[in-house]
Each structure stands twice: as structure tokens, then as C-alpha cells.
Design goal:
By secondary structure, the chain is of the alpha+beta class. 28% of the residues lie in helices and 9% in strands. The chain has eleven helices and nine strands. A seven-stranded antiparallel beta sheet has the order 6-5-4-3-2-1-9, with helices on both faces. A two-stranded antiparallel ribbon has the order 7-8. Helix 5 runs antiparallel to helix 6 and helix 6 crosses helix 9.
């Protein structure tokens, strides 16, 4: 079960402090060396955009309907088909959010954007290879020039809490929501990731798409007559047009695609796990240096404790990449936009036309149970010892050396396919991944 035992803590993918969150007591660790989260200079794509805009090298166009949103999406290559709509009041601009005026979220592999009608800012979160989630706002009131501001302290009250392993990250939640958009905290909330049953997903969200007899919490509100657990989930099922629920004319798209929602939940969880492994790996290295100096050991010496810490960080990334405990679908999922095609056609593809972006949507989310985020800059930015550990464990699993129950969902055929796809499409694989025949011809 994913019910949150601390009823007062909740968050969606929202990139800002939420009004009901308690402080995150673990902030100090990532504000110290070697992370220095708030004082370090981000290198993510929004940071690069900010530098260009501030220097006058780039101008973002403003339009009357959505302010800077369209220009931002174009520059950052965020597809309109990724739109999902959230109607619970769980954002900085909550006073503008309701079931009649939901908040729109747009995303790609490393960027999340939040937009509300008549909003003061576009909310932005970027995945930085070394800092994890980095939060920004883009002022919607200044029409003459785009002003992008990095946000730290307030955002971290929720976005560096127990929900994100106490590091800067993202949270996708499902909540019972009343007619005004307020979450009903007394009934608890649910975390949304690969392991979440559909029946616990998307409370407080609009959802467009078909899913057969499976049910979710989207598209419905608590009416005040019955308890939240008695919401009419049937009325929110298999909705392909939101016209009877909300006017979508103010939005870039009329949809809140179910496939986009599933990918959103997957990548939020994987992003957080990669960031946690990065932080853990770097602090492990820091601690090892201090201990080696104190005990007058060689600089490269690794104690058993250090090795276990690296291995633990790597194992958690492997579990996230291979979607351990993924909820199994009982009927097909079909979205209402071009999102699935837009996403899948990006590849990369191997010589047989296979890709880790290809969907299944009948039994599970992806055709091959290995996350596309293995291609991300965040993954490549993992500390060497952690990344080496991930590759070693993947090799053991994909070659069948590891037959543990934990990875039994990855069938022999899946393992062979994933191994072949990665060999042909993933740069900088360890030499151990190259077969003898390939090694003989490798430059």
C-alpha cells in the first residue's frame, strides 16, 4: 500500500513549496561539501537558458494566451502532447487552481513546467546532472523581457523531504479532492510510481484515455455526501473527452493523456533515485578520503563500509531502472494524444529497430523493462564507483548470472533484448560488456 502515514505531508510534481508541508530536517547534509546544493552553480538546461536570456543573447516571445509558456516549451523541446492537468490545490499558485481551472504540467526527459490560468509565474524544474532537481520561476507579469529566477529555500520544505529521500527531488501524489480543489487530508494520500496500483493513482488529476475494467482515482471529486473512499471511480473511468468535466479551451491541449501520466510517474521516481545515488556516492567518497587520511591509509583504499555504501547506492539505481515491483496491467491502456508516438519515435534504436522507449501498455508500461533514463545526463553524471556498480549489476542480471526472485519479472528474452539494445545504443559502456568478437574489432 502507498497510503502516506503522515497525513499532513503531500506534494505533486509541483515545483514549489506546498502550504501544508512540514520542514525537511535532512537539508543540511546536501548543503555541505561536496554537494553545496544552494550555492553550487547549476549546469542544467534551464540554467543555460537563463544565462543566455540574462546576457541578452536570447529573447523569449510573450503571447497573450500563455505568456512565455509556448516559447519556453519550444526552446526546451517540451511537447504539447505531454500535457497533464491537476485540479487539486497543491501548488504555490493554489488560489488559481480548482476543478474548473486546473494546473497544466508539461515535461520531457529532464524538464518539468507548470502553468496556471492568469498565473504570476511559469513554474520550472530541471534535472541537473550533479544537483538533482533544480527549481526556477519565470515571471509572467513582465511582458518586456523574460526573467528566470532560481528558487531554493522554500521549495525544499517539501521537495527535500522524506518523500524524496531528503534530497532535492520531485514527488507525484494522488489525493482525494473536494469540489473546491482542496485535498481531503483525513483520508490520506498515495505516492505514484511504477509500483502503484492504478486504483491508487491520479486523485486530483484529470485523465484522458481508456483502460478497460481497471479503475483509477482521476476525474472525480469528493462530493461531501459520502466518505472520500466512496468516490464514484466508475464515473471517471475511460474518459476520452473532458468537455463534460472542464473547459479546456484556455490550454495548449484539450487532453490529460493517461500514457503521459504513467511515464511522468515512472521518470519522477527514477530521477529521484539517480539523484540520491549521486549524492550518496559523492558523500561516500568524501568520507573515505577523511577516514583514509585520519588512519594514514593509501588514498585509494576502500574499506568494506565504503564498498557497501557504493554498492547500496548502485543497487537502488538498478532496481529503479529495471522497474522492480512494477504494477502489472490487466487490460490495455490507450491514450488520447500523440504522446505515445512522440515519445517512442525518439529512440535510440538498435539494428533491429528496438528501443527502450517502446511501449507495451498491455501488461506493463514499456516493452522492455529497462528505463530510457539510462541515457540521461544524470545517469552519466553518477560518481564513477556508483556507475561502475550499476553496470556490473546490470551485466549480472542481463546475462542471467543473477537469477534472484527480485528480477524474475525480467524474462530471459527481455534480458537478451535489453543487453543487445544497450550494447548498440548506449555510449561509454564498460569494456566487459563487449563480446570477444566485438572486442577484437573495436578500435
Amino acid at each position: 500500500m502507498h497510503r502516506n502515514s503522515t497525513r499532513g505531508l503531500f506534494a505533486l510534481i509541483a515545483t514549489f513549496v506546498l502550504p501544508f508541508c512540514a520542514p525537511a530536517f535532512g537539508q543540511l547534509e546536501f548543503e555541505r561539501e561536496p554537494i553545496n546544493y544552494s550555492t553550487a552553480s547549476p549546469q542544467d538546461r534551464v540554467a543555460q537558458l537563463k544565462q543566455q536570456v540574462d546576457a541578452g543573447e536570447l529573447t523569449l516571445n510573450y503571447d497573450a494566451d500563455h505568456g512565455y509558456l509556448a516559447a519556453l516549451m519550444e526552446y526546451l523541446q517540451v511537447p504539447a502532447s505531454s500535457q497533464t492537468l491537476v485540479f487539486s490545490k497543491t501548488s504555490l499558485q493554489r488560489h488559481r487552481i480548482s476543478p474548473r481551472t486546473p494546473r497544466a504540467l508539461y515535461f520531457n526527459d529532464d524538464i518539468y513546467l507548470g502553468w496556471v490560468q492568469q498565473g504570476d509565474v511559469v513554474e520550472i524544474s530541471a534535472v541537473d546532472p550533479q544537483l538533482g532537481a533544480v527549481f526556477y520561476t519565470l515571471d509572467q507579469n513582465d511582458k518586456s523581457r523574460a526573467v528566470i529566477t532560481r528558487q531554493t529555500d522554500h521549495c525544499l520544505l517539501c521537495h527535500a523531504s522524506s518523500h524524496t529521500q531528503r534530497i532535492p527531488g520531485h514527488i507525484m501524489r494522488s489525493v482525494y479532492t473536494d469540489a473546491s480543489g482542496l485535498p481531503v487530508f483525513s483520508s490520506g494520500t498515495y505516492r505514484t510510481d511504477d509500483s502503484s496500483p492504478l486504483s491508487e493513482r491520479w486523485g486530483g488529476w484529470y485523465v484522458t484515455g481508456t483502460h478497460g475494467r481497471q479503475r483509477h482515482m482521476g476525474n472525480v471529486i469528493v462530493d461531501g455526501k459520502n466518505g472520500p473512499e466512496e468516490i464514484d471511480v466508475d464515473s471517471g473511468a475511460n474518459v476520452t473527452d473532458l468537455k463534460d468535466l472542464v473547459s479546456t479551451s484556455p490550454y495548449i491541449s484539450p487532453d490529460s493523456d493517461i500514457v503521459a501520466l504513467m511515464v511522468l510517474g515512472h521518470q519522477v521516481a527514477v530521477h529521484n533515485q539517480i539523484a540520491a545515488a549521486n549524492f550518496n556516492g559523492r558523500t561516500t567518497q568524501r568520507d573515505a578520503v577523511v577516514m583514509n587520511q585520519a588512519l594514514e591509509r593509501p588514498q585509494e583504499f576502500e574499506s568494506e563500509s565504503t564498498q557497501r555504501r557504493y554498492a547500496s547506492a548502485a543497487e537502488k539505481v538498478v532496481e529503479a531502472l529495471l522497474m522492480v515491483d512494477e504494477h502489472q496491467l490487466s487490460e490495455p491502456i490507450v491514450g488520447t494524444t500523440t504522446f505515445a508516438d512522440d515519445f517512442a519515435t525518439r529512440g535510440p534504436f538498435d539494428s533491429q529497430g528496438r528501443s527502450l522507449r517502446q511501449f507495451d501498455l498491455k501488461r506493463r508500461l514499456f516493452r522492455y523493462p529497462c528505463s530510457f533514463l539510462i541515457y540521461s545526463e544524470a545517469f552519466d553524471g553518477l560518481p564513477n564507483r556508483v556507475r561502475e556498480g550499476v553496470y556490473q549489476r546490470l551485466w549480472e542480471i542481463l546475462t542471467g548470472q543473477d537469477q534472484s526472485e527480485q528480477f524474475a519479472h525480467v524474462t530471459p528474452a527481455d534480458r537478451q533484448a535489453i543487453l543487445q539494445i544497450l550494447r548498440e545504443t548506449k555510449k561509454d559502456l564498460p569494456e566487459s560488456w563487449i563480446s570477444p568478437a566485438e572486442a577484437a574489432t573495436s578500435p
